[in-house]
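Before the break, one more example. Copy the sequence into your notebook; we will annotate it together after we see the structure.
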Amino acid sequence: MLICSTRPQSHLSFRSILMLSVALACVVLVGGVQAAEPISVPMLVSPPAPVTAASQSAPPVRVAEGFGVAPMAELVPARVGAIDELAAIAAHNRAGELPMRTGFARPLPMSRSVRFDASMAGPAGVADGGAYVRFGAATAVWGSEVRVDEAYRLRVHLDQVSLPHDARLWVYGEDGEVRGPFGLELVYDGGLWTPSVAGPALRLEVELPADAIDRQAAGAPYGFVVDRVMETVRLDASGSPITGDPVALPAAVDSSCLVDSTCVDATDFTVVDPARAAVAQLVFVEGPFQYACSGGLLNDVQQTATPNLLTANHCFSTQAVASTLEAVWDWTTMTCNGSVPPRSGQPVSNGSTLVATGISSDYTLVRLNTVPPGRTFLGWTTQDTHNFPVSETYNRLHYPAPENAILSQHYTQFMRIPDADINLCGVDPDGRQVDNTSLFIHTVQLQGGDFGGSSGGPIIRDNGQVVGQLFGACGPAPEEGCDDRNDNLDGAFANTFGDPAVQMVLLNQGDPDPPSAVWLTTPQQPGFEFQVQITPAGGSPVLGANEPVCIVESLCASGALAGRPEVFIKLIGPRPNGFLWVQISRFTPSQVEVWVRQTASGQTNYYNLPTVSAQSDDVSGLQDRVAFSP
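Here is what the structure looks like once it is written out:
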């Protein structure tokens, strides 16, 4: 969050002019950079049958519940067993750090290994901390429970995951909430965070073909290790997790300006009714903590209802985190300022694939694995907002957390600030040039306000077109979301669209062709050939060159400097799920594109690892677990 109070003194009356609704048509604008041929895509309203609608498969069998097995792990309340973690959440949120923390990981007292092997050969029984039952020769189901006293919501982490590609998993709680089925699409680097359910107990169920157990009985079995739980906490006004203990509260944050989105009608935001179905609360895991932001679905030029979702780079920027994403939909009040439905009753999308990310306009674009029916896909335009009248109003639907208490979907209305009147905020610690108004849109709210949890929420024109997403605020009191002396800062979509990966997805261009007619080969990977392209931030693409001195069973590619490998590509397997896996490691923050071709079949796979910040501690690679058939 930026803090700055420097504004050109001759323009200090601008905000009071806004509040008095004085016409601003005479303001001279300083235009930003505009594309030669701007592109505009309309909003797609609730298509009848989204191509990625969530599976309507059968519910879990509830083996653990039916057998009455004891939990594989039981943890004491966090207020007793996780005091340091609770303090870390409180300190982070009290300091106004973004994104806001909403949960923390707790190791199990003892990790539990689950193996689907000969021990489950009978028709039913108890095994590996749970119970199992076999339904003839077709299906086997195993289930168990983890319990954390007083927990609000829980997720469980599975490590060393080895399951057949058609395995299905569920989690469910004591209140009837069920999430699933899900599977290998949520796995990253051998691990998987399940969806969340209401505490204090989470029951995990795994279904796989019975013959998969029999096939593996003599070899390495399928299975995983249950090692951690993620406990979601409710927060009080100090940013501290609610544990029942009294907490000394700081001065209250003014949240009187907030507007429940259910109270808004077309007189304020013409397309508010369908737009509500496009914006989700985002919950995700990074390191030992869980965080919350907002984000919105974007339409594409062919209106395919592909679930591409836009949020902020400062929320998350790696595939490791994108794989943990929970997007919570339709979490709105039933009536204006009415009661909020329970979180456990809302539709959720689990997991996503990172498409593009960057700090220039603080954007992250992901493709969700699934979306529930009835979604709206917001339009967008590459026009710079300087081309619109300064008197035009903009809108945001988001999930704010004033005083760290996450609320249901809310609404804010804005007006853009002329360049001469913006707060001068300098450069943020990660290098974002927020004073550059071709990169960031500066606005002041007319209704509502933004708080922690609002980050990544789209800023939308009255016709349903996105022009940016929330980064933060700067001014004399940026933590005060109702203070109209602050500038609200949104990354400009006109700049975001300059990312080739964003264009490829939203223009439906498909995978790009390999950049060269020359393929790289190595005797370490017979039957496959490769191309690599490395593009530094703001630079030109460089074809990867084959480095003969390489690690075992890999192709190593260098970029601008010969002899210095920056990308390592390996195919391994066949793995237990029957596929050859592609593993890509990189040692550069630059964008890395890789094409892998299987010479026997002609199948070509394309992989895009987006640019990461030079200040990032995580230069993530990639693993494709269903890359090629042997």
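Residues 115 and 223 are 4 Å apart (CA to CA). The chain is about 10% helix and 35% strand. Try to locate both features in your own notes.
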